[in-house]
């Protein structure tokens, strides 16, 4: 059993959507969240650069004595998780777009996916999509510009609404019944997306599944915390503290990190 913290990183503030799910399932676990906002977005960067950034984030969290790392970023997972697993000696949990459940449940046989360029062009995404959605019309859309707007505190802006309208239209025209959110920043868009999508279109993301998997892997490795006191949750960002705080709400321990 381990009292060490769980380390979580993302290219920015979006991975807090995953942190929230993990904290719900594992409220007794200490966590350290690292928001590499200064390098966001990772999506348009090449695989080599993404690996380099993920390596740096992992080293930072391991220096803080983390027992397990959650890569709370689809772009980082689909491009760098193999590298991380072969180069560091702790368990890693990654996140991938939930294309499988969407494809299995779709009645219209048309599913939309909104993700970054880095995720949609990755070998891992192609493999999963080919395996589970070969008989489905998958409308892929790169969410260019969305992450920078969120990182700049413009979640509820006209700019965001216009971008999303543009990105959703081909999916609506194709009669999708599921929209897969393939980026951890995007769950924060759900209220806007629900407003723009036709009634009945369901939105899926992988947050809950990642939290369940985190618990299962901790258990399997005998790493679950035995603490009965309140957990300590620390957030570090090399970007804007206010944006991180707005997404988390008040009462969290957020520090600037020159990283
Ligand atoms: N949250 C990251 C993801 O899940 C955003 C990627 C980016 O920085 O472009 O893909």
Describe the structure.
The protein folds into 2 domains: 6-95 and 207-256, Rossmann fold (3-Layer(aba) Sandwich); 99-204, Rossmann fold, CATH 3.40.50. Helices cover 44% and strands 17% of the residues. It has helices at residues 16-25, 47-63, 74-87, 99-105, 117-120, 123-132, 146-151, 158-173, 190-196, 207-220, 241-248, and strands at residues 6-10, 31-35, 68-71, 92-93, 110-115, 137-142, 178-182, 202-204, 233-237, 253-256. The strands form 2 sheets. Strands 4-3-1-2-9-10 form a 6-stranded parallel beta sheet, with helices on both faces. Strands 6-5-7-8 form a 4-stranded parallel beta sheet, with helices on both faces. The radius of gyration is 18 Å and the shape is globular. The mean pLDDT is 96. The site of D-glutamic acid has 18 residues, from helix 3.
What does this entry show, briefly?
The protein is of the alpha/beta class and 259 residues long. It is built from eleven helices and ten strands. The strands form two sheets. Strands 4-3-1-2-9-10 form a six-stranded parallel beta sheet, with helices on both faces. The chain has a four-stranded parallel beta sheet with strand order 6-5-7-8, with helices on both faces.
């Amino acid at each position: 059993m381990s009292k060490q913290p769980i380390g979580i990183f993302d290219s920015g503030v979006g991975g807090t959507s995953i942190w929230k799910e993990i904290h719900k399932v594992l409220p007794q676990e200490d966590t350290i969240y690292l928001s590499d906002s200064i390098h966001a977005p990772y999506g348009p960067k090449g695989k080599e650069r993404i690996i380099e950034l993920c390596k740096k984030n992992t080293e930072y969290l391991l220096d803080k004595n983390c027992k397990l790392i959650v890569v709370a970023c689809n772009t980082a997972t689909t491009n760098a998780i193999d590298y991380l697993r072969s180069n560091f000696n702790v368990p890693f949990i990654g996140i991938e777009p939930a294309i499988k459940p969407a494809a299995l449940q779709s009645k219209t046989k048309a599913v939309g996916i909104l993700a970054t360029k880095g995720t949609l062009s990755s070998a891992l995404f192609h493999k999963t999509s080919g395996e589970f959605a070969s008989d489905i019309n998958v409308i892929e859309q790169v969410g260019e510009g969305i992450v920078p707007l969120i990182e700049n505190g413009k979640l509820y802006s006209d700019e965001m609404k216009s971008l999303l309208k543009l990105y959703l239209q081909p999916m609506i025209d194709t009669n999708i019944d599921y929209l897969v959110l393939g980026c951890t920043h995007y769950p924060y868009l759900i209220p806007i997306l629900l407003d723009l999508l036709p009634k009945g279109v369901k939105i899926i993301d992988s947050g809950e599944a990642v939290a369940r998997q985190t618990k299962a892997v901790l258990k399997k490795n005998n790493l679950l915390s035995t603490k009965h006191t309140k957990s300590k949750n620390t957030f570090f960002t090399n970007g804007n503290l206010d944006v991180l705080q707005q997404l988390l709400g008040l009462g969290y321990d957020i520090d600037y990190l020159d990283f």
